[in-house]
User: Fold this.
Amino acid sequence: MPEAVELRLTVPAELGPAADVLEELRQRVAAAVAAIGAERQRAGQRVLGRRAVLHQPWWGRPTSFEPRRNLRPRVAARSKWVRIEALLRKPGVPDGLRGSAGSLA
Assistant:
């Protein structure tokens, strides 16, 4: 393996002059950053800055958490009707519901 490798990235000639392509790319990135920043401000969310990130302990963890893994699927299938039929075949489903699979929409 070589100790170092150099990779030169260039703008393909099909896209036009490199300076024009790079300027358009910069404008689009700036617009996206501004739009996301505005949405973040509307939602009242904050961004942790560089200094705050560097001052965090490496063993640190969030004090709050987002609930995860609460969904407990019993049956996985692409078809809605296959899922309904499989759920109705499971034990514990009241007999009155077993015949009503055709009425579900």
About this structure: The chain has a mean pLDDT of 85. Residues 81 and 101 are 8 Å apart (CA to CA). DSSP finds four helices and no strands in the chain. The helical segments are 18-43, 50-55, 80-89, 95-98.
